[in-house]
From TrEMBL, chain B:
GO terms for molecular function: DNA binding. Residues 2-122 form the Response regulatory domain. Keywords: DNA-binding, Phosphoprotein, Transcription, Transcription regulation. The modification 4-aspartylphosphate is found at D52. SUPFAM superfamilies: C-terminal effector domain of the bipartite response regulators, CheY-like. PROSITE patterns: HTH_LUXR_2, RESPONSE_REGULATORY. This is LuxR family two component transcriptional regulator.
Length: 432, 215
């Protein structure tokens, strides 16, 4: 199975015959947009006399909704999504919102687009639609002449000439010409309209950066939260577990020491108890260490660790790993825990009889696929296992996609950025 | 009995030496790093070696690799590998090649002195000593296996102890039953798992481990 990048030229999502109607619809919307344009242009100066504020509170969300609908439509026409570039107010409150909105270039670009759309966009979409409807019109022209009374359709070109039914067949080739034109440029005109929309509705370079910064600070906050929670868990585990047991152990040993000459039998019993609590403390520490950084990952890297993981599953797991070297430790650890969690999910929910794991490195990314032949229907739910993986991967700019139709099979696709230059080439950990 | 020890923690190394020498073992060399281990094993050809998995300089699985390498040079050299944690992957690597005379135990097991010494002697005698944790994982993995689910709870218990490498006598003692009863159970197990019956303890263990890990 090969993994390919998304093709650069995405196809139009609407079938050809739907395009003229979409174009017509867009042309109508373009003219309706004038109303939004005017309302906004009127409202802004009115801020000076306060009336503008409530007006903007209504109009701006309307424009944004209108623009968002177009973003979706244009996205479908050009095949690539148009992200929403709006800034979020840093604090709640009407004035803060107003301030953010008025200083947000996206607000003004929306308004500029309303105007451009009403002029250029309107022409583009209208021509695209009209070419099609002209085709239809001339192809059935003789019929129209035949069934309508004199003076309705039989005097084309503003009454310059008058045609009878038979002569009207002479107009049919015009329909073919229009069809040729529509077939050649209809879709392009629609795409040109989408390009115009994208250029004004899409985020600017700085807005893209702002969006990126927002994403990063969100994922960073989440990472910090997760790590803090993890540290708390470790602290609690140590405090309630190993630490408490060691305290009991040293108490038992002290008592045994005191008792050894007086009551050797009792001392022996205490020593047995001490040994048991030492064993339990060790096993708790072992589990804790496994949760922090599994020793086999340190020993054998991702390949060995994932194979070891596969061995502990109650069903057959096929592991294919093709990596040119060892990824950096944090990436390796994130990938390992993601696979571990995905496998745990399969064990818990899928009722699978076989599973497979594939890890490859391609175009500067680590691709991890975990599949099973279980019941399917897996989704990313807040608090669920897959959500946990997603959060873990987010910290590294990684992504998680789940394909799990009801009835199965399920494939979890995870990607982690990992530069080839960061891969450590280690001497093969080959063993006999 | 001559022993080579490999353990990097001074405290644990001294403890092991003290423990083994107190029970009539003679420690011929105690090494504290990986590179020195293979030559020591090949040179002394001890009756048994007790080796820690994690050793300097890399602190990864040096001990395991040295053990496998030494056994390649000196076939069936008895080695008991100790580790802070157990991995089935490592158990499988140790067992590859067959032949027995290997052990893989959690370090904690040393604290149960009698059991530990029994394991060392078993490995020295060409037997096997697998940690109950490894066997537990193996059995847990096979719960969906049809022949295994046909075993009675008692038979599963016997299977587990057998896989650890214990003899019929030891299993009988552990379960407080007669040796005859154990042998009846083992016959049933072999029949249910469709394995060729064998009176030889070592071959029996190998058959069971191969069966469990092949799934």
């Amino acid at each position: 199975m090969t993994i390919t990048q998304a093709p650069p030229q995405a196809p139009m999502r609407f079938p050809r015959l739907a395009q003229p109607f979409i174009a017509l619809f867009l042309a109508v919307l373009a003219e309706l947009g004038i109303a939004f344009f005017v309302l906004n242009v009127v409202a802004v100066p009115l801020i000076a006399v306060w009336v503008g504020i409530p007006l903007l509170l209504v109009f701006v969300p309307c424009v944004r909704w209108f623009a968002n609908c177009h973003r979706t439509l244009f996205g479908a026409i050009s095949g690539t999504e148009i992200p929403r570039p709006y800034k979020k107010p840093p604090l709640p409150g009407v004035l803060m919102w107003l301030r953010t909105t008025l200083t947000d270039p996206a607000t003004w670009r929306d308004i500029a687009w309303l105007l451009a759309n009403a002029v250029v966009g309107f022409v583009l979409t209208l021509v695209s639609a009209v070419l099609f409807f002209t085709t239809a019109f001339y192809l059935i022209y003789p019929l129209l002449v035949g069934v309508t009374p004199h003076g309705v359709f039989d005097e084309p070109f503003g009454g310059l000439i008058t045609l009878n039914f038979w002569q009207s067949f002479g107009m049919v080739p015009l329909g073919l010409v229009a069809f040729g034109l529509w077939y050649a440029v209809g879709e392009r005109l629609l795409k040109a309209d989408a390009v115009l929309g994208r250029s004004l509705l899409g985020p600017t370079e700085s807005a893209k950066l702002a969006i990126r910064v927002r994403e990063l600070s969100e994922s960073r906050a989440e990472t910090v939260d997760t790590q803090a929670a993890e540290l708390r868990r470790i602290e609690r585990d140590l405090h309630d577990g190993a630490q408490a047991r060691l305290a009991a152990l040293s108490m038992n040993l002290g008592m045994a020491e005191e008792m050894v000459s007086r009551d050797p039998a009792q001392a022996a019993a205490l020593l047995t108890e001490a040994r048991e609590s030492a064993s339990t403390a060790l096993s708790e520490l072992r589990d804790l260490v496994r949760g922090i950084h599994p020793p086999v990952l340190a020993d054998r890297g991702l390949e060995g660790a994932v194979k070891a993981l596969a061995l502990t599953c109650p069903f057959k797991v096929d592991v294919t790993i093709e990596l040119p070297g060892r990824p950096p430790a944090p990436v390796e650890s994130a990938a390992y825990f993601a696979v571990a969690e995905a496998l745990a999910n399969i064990v818990k929910h899928s009722a699978a009889t076989t599973a497979w794991i594939q890890i490859t490195h391609e175009s500067e990314r680590l691709h991890i696929l975990v599949g099973d032949d279980g019941v399917g229907g897996a989704t990313v739910r807040p608090g669920g296992g897959l959500h946990g993986i997603e959060r873990r991967l987010n910290a590294f700019d990684g992504t998680l996609t789940v394909a799990s139709p009801t009835g199965g099979p399920t494939t979890v696709i995870m990607e982690l950025p990992c530069e080839s230059s960061s891969l450590k080439i280690t001497p093969s950990s080959g063993t006999a | 009995m001559r022993v080579v020890i490999a353990e990097d923690h001074a405290l644990l190394r001294d403890g092991l030496i003290r423990l083994l020498e107190a029970h009539d073992f003679q420690v011929v060399e105690a090494v504290d790093n990986g590179p020195r281990l293979v030559p020591a094993l090949v040179e002394h050809r001890p009756d048994v070696a007790v080796v820690d998995v994690r050793l300097p300089p890399t602190f990864t699985d040096e001990g395991l690799k040295a053990a496998i390498e030494a056994r390649r040079q000196v076939p069936n050299l008895p080695i008991l590998v100790l580790s802070q944690y157990v991995e089935q992957l490592y158990a499988r690597e140790l067992l590859t090649g067959g032949g027995g005379a290997v052990g893989y135990l959690l370090k904690d097991r040393v604290s149960n002195v009698a059991d530990f010494l029994d394991s060392v002697r078993r490995v020295a005698g060409g037997g096997t000593a697998m940690d109950p944790d490894v066997i537990g994982q193996l059995l847990a993995r096979n719960t969906r296996d049809e022949p295994i689910s046909r075993l009675t709870p008692r038979e599963s218990e016997v299977l587990g102890l057998m896989a650890e490498g214990r003899s019929n006598a030891a299993i009988a003692a552990a379960l407080f039953v007669t040796e005859k009863a154990v042998s009846k159970h083992t016959n049933n197990i072999f029949a249910k798992l469709d394995l060729p019956p064998s009176e030889d303890d070592n071959r029996r263990v190998m058959a069971v481990l191969t069966y469990l890990s092949s799934r």
